[in-house]
Input
Amino acid sequence: MEYHEEPKDRKHTPDVESEEEYAFLQETFKDERGRGRISRGMVVKYACLGLVFGLAASLGFFALKPWAESMNLDNPDQVTIPEEEDVNSEETEEVSGEIQEQPQPLTIDNYREMNKALYDVGSETAKCVVEMQGAGAEEDWQETEYDKGGSVSGIIVADNGPELLIFASSRAAGNREGIQAKFADGRTYSAGLKQKDENLGFAVYAVQKNGLAESTRSRIGVAELGSSAVVAQGDTVIALGSPFGYAGAMGFGVVASPKNTILNPDGEYRLICTDISGARNGTGALVNIKGEIVGMIDQSISDEDSMNLVTGYGISDLKGIIELLSNGLPVPYLGITGVTVTEDIAEQQGIPVGMYVQEVQADSPAMTAGIQSGDVIVGIGKEEIISLSAYHLLLMKQEAGSDVKFQGMRKGMDGYVAIDYTVTVGSCN
Output
């Protein structure tokens, strides 16, 4: 028997199956460390392109802005003053068992901080305050800013696109040849009368935006109208404008009474009376601690005894008028001064529920229609009238020049009888 010895230098060759089993070991792996890298040059390139694009866009915006505004001069946006929600006078009850913190004694530093906080609110809100001045043919060069008795202070109430609209006393639109508006940055511009309400003595003036300097645009703002319905006795208020007879003033105080009212033809208006000393010709705005306008100062509505204390119309009763005037529409007018006949009064006095006519102005639309003192207005169109405020709200929805059906009650020999009127609505401009 022969034995064959395999040479020692002969290498072992794996079979085919072994080669396939370990074939994955021969795969080539790529270096992943370079993936996702962006070269420094590419970063610089994109940054430069972004900078050039931003500069071009900015220059284009400022170049085309005046042109865009000028193209919109004949097409102003409709101004709408939001309606207020119903106010719930009941306060939320405190949780029983809640631990009440003991009040800390006030210090001089607290007083300084409070005044600083009020000043900051007033300064920010003052951006919407504008001084309106009638411009005569010849101005007296000896007249100083302090002496200008013909100027009044108003507020910017809206921006309708091409115009800034300013609500202020109509005194600035008297028998002058022009009107000027001085904004918070001290610059003065020509203004035009948009519409006025001679019943209350207010007007809306318009200043063209395309003529405003950039410094003026950046330092003014549209007023935020609050609610005078929630103003309470003791609330802190800020008086801005010309409450002391000169422009650019600011005063702090509290609400002495928010319940006084004044009767004007076709409406009753709530007054905000303060403890702030003021001038007899003072005008301007009353502001709450949130920076909202809650009243328009008009010292002419105060009686002799309280004329030296700042008083204003509650802003809630003026919002409908502001909206009409801002859109160039006249305020509807009938010329009726009346009071509400409540159910209690109706039961006690035997008068129908509605609006009792106290007085009818001479040559007014109401007099022309045959409405008399002593009549009770109980309906306008198909709407029932149960109060003076309901009458006022419905009247504000009528168009000047339109014929409106009124339903009333007139006292005769056998009691009150129904009577109808057709009234052609007038205007207060």
Notes: The helical segments are 16-21, 40-71, 108-125, 214-218, 319-326, 343-349, 365-369, 388-396. DSSP finds eight helices and 21 strands in the chain.
